[in-house]
Amino acid sequence: MAQDTVLGIDLGTSSVRALLIDEEGVVVASAMRTYPIHAAHPGWAEQDPDEWWEATCLAIGECRKAAPDALIRSVSFSGQMHGTVLLDSGGDPVRPAIIWCDQRSAAEVEAFLSTFGKDRLAEITANPLAAGFQLATLLWLRNHEADSLRDIGAVLLPKDYLRARFTGRYATESSDACSTLLFDTAHRRWSPEVIGAAHLSQAWFPPVKSATDHVGEVASDAARATGIPVGTPVFAGGGDLPLTAIGNGVIKPGQVLSTIGSGGQLCAPTGEPNYDPKLRTHTFCHALPDRWYLMGAILSAGLSLRWLREQVLGPDAPDYAALSANAANVPPGAEGLVFLPYLIGERTPHLDPYACGVFFGLTPRHTAAHLVRAIMEGVVFALSEGLDIMRALGINPRSVVAAGGGARSALWRQIQADVYRCTVTTTRTEEQAAYGAALLAGVGVGWWPSVRAACAACVLPASEPLEPVEENRKRYEELRDLYRRLYPRLRDLMAERSRLVAGGKLEP
Fold first, then answer.
1. pLDDT per residue over 226-273, tens digit each?
2. Same structural domain, 222 and 305
3. Are residues 39 and 20 in the same domain?
4. Is the dihedral of CA 418, 422, 427, 433 positive or negative?
5. Which of 209, 241, 273 is the last residue of a domain?
6. Helix 410-420 and helix 320-327: axis angle, to 10°?
7. CA distances from 319 to 31, 97, 326, 367 (A)
8. Counting C-beta atoms within 10 Å of the first and last residue's C-beta, which end of the chain has fewer, N or C?
9. 451 versus 463: which is more confidently predicted?
10. What angle do CA 499, 501, 506 make, to 5 degrees?
C-alpha cells in the first residue's frame, strides 16, 4: 500500500543524509553518503558541488529502495552554513565551493574590519566576522582569484545550491543567509551597506524566503536523477544548526542545544536579536520567523576525535563506541591531560584562525584511552566557554539537549552534564538536521499547522536525563581553570607557528 512521506535532506560537512518521515513523524527510511574535503594548501577547505549532488541522488535512491511504497509529497533542506558556491550565468559552478572551516581569508577579515569597523558590522549583522564566512571568502576571491568573480550569475550557500539543482531556481532563507555576514540579522534582509563596502554586486545574492516557504518544484532533470516525481513541491529549509534545534524541539527561550558533530555548537533561542557586545558569540536568525538564537561555535569537536582515530591510532583503531567505552575507564580529568581542540583554528570565544591543537600534560602514564578522554573533555571545555558567556547574558538553562554524533556516547553526555553543571537530555530523533528539514517539508504541505505544532507532535524524549556528578563537577572546575589559562599563554606562539608555516620555514 502506498504511504505518504516527506523528504528531508541535510547537506553536512562530510556527508549528506536523506530522511523520509510519515504523517506521524515516524522515520520510514534514511540513508547517508559521504564526500571528501579537499585541502590544496594548509588551512584550505573546499568541496565539489557535483559530488554533493551525486551523493544526494545516491542517498535518495537508497531511501526509495528501502521504502518502495513511499510517495514523496514534498522536499526540504538543511545544510552546512557559511560556505560559498559561485555559479556562472549558465548556473554551473565556477570553482569548487569554499566551506565554513576554510581559514585562508584571515587577512581579509582584518583588512575589512579595519575599514568598515567591527562595531558597525555588529550593529547590522549581530556578529563578529570570521574566516570561512561567505563575506570573508568573497573578499579573498576578489583579492586572489578575481577571474572567478567576472561572470557570476549567483552566489549561493551550500544547501541553496542543492535546492537549485532540484528546482532550477535560486533562493535562500534567513536562518542560513544571516551566516554570510552580508545580512541584516534584525530585519532579515541582505545589507546593501555591507555588500557595497565589500565591493560586491547585490544582484549576485538570491531572494530571501522563510523556512517553510514554497520555493519551487522538482524539475525534470532532478526527477530523472532522483526518481522524485516532476512537480513535487520544494520548501526553503534552513541552516543545519537551527534545523538540528527544530529536530530536537529547541525553539523556545530558555532552552539550549549542545551539538557535537564535526564542529560543535551551542544554540540558545531568543525572542530578540540581541548579541554579545564583546562579540565572543554569534547571533543568528532561527528558522522560525519570530526567533533568533545565540550560538557558541567551535571548529573541531568530533573532528578532533576523528583525527585521533584515523591519523594517530591508525587502521586497526577501535570504532567510536569502543573508544568511548575505553575512555570511560579513565578517571575524570584524564590524569592531568588537557586538550585544546583548535585543530583548524577556533571561533568562540577566541575567534583565532591561527590557533592550533595542543595536548598539555603528556606523561608515560597516558594511553590511547587517556587521549580519547582528554579530547572529549577538551571539546566540552571549549563549548562551556560559550555557555559561560550566555549565562552572563541572562540565559540560565536548567537542562541542555545533547545532539549530534557525540550524543550517542553516554560518556560524552555525562561529561557535558558535569561540565555544564546542569541536566543533559536527549531526544529520540536520529539525524536531527535532516529530521528538522523533514518537519519543515511536512509543515509546507499542511501536515502540521506550524513548526511549533510539528515539534510538539513529533519530538519525543529518549533516555533518562543525566544529572551532574558532584565529585566530577568539582574536578572539572579545577581542570577548566587550567584549560582557560592555556590559550592566552600560547596565543602568540600559535600565531608565530602559523607565520613560520606560511613562510615555508616549517613543513605544514
1. 999 999 999 999 999 999 999 999 999 999 999 998 889 999 999 999
2. no
3. yes
4. negative
5. 241
6. 50
7. 20, 31, 11, 17
8. N
9. 451
10. 125
The boundaries of the domain holding residue 332 are 250-426+469-508
- Amino acid at position 443, single letter: V
More confident of the two residues 262 and 447:
447
**What are phi and psi for residue 47, nearest 5 degrees?**
-140, 155
| Residue where a domain stops, chosen among 215, 241, 267 | 241
What are 42-92's pLDDT values in tens digits? Answer: 889 999 999 999 999 999 999 999 999 999 999 999 999 999 999 999 999
Q: Do 19 and 121 belong together in one domain?
A: yes
Active site residues: 240
Does residue 286 come out as left (phi exceeding 0), alpha (psi in the -120 to 50 range) or beta?
A: beta
Contact 284, 127 (CB under 8 A): yes
**Pair 315, 415 in one domain:** yes
Grid cell in block for residue 321: 563506541
Q: What are 36's three cell numbers?
A: 571528501
Q: Is the pLDDT of residue 471 over 80?
A: yes
Kindly report the number of other CB atoms within 10 A of residue 156's CB atom.
27
What's the number of domains the chain is made of?
A: 2
328, three cell numbers: 570511560
Its pTM stands at 0.90
- Residue 493: its H or E element: helix 470-502
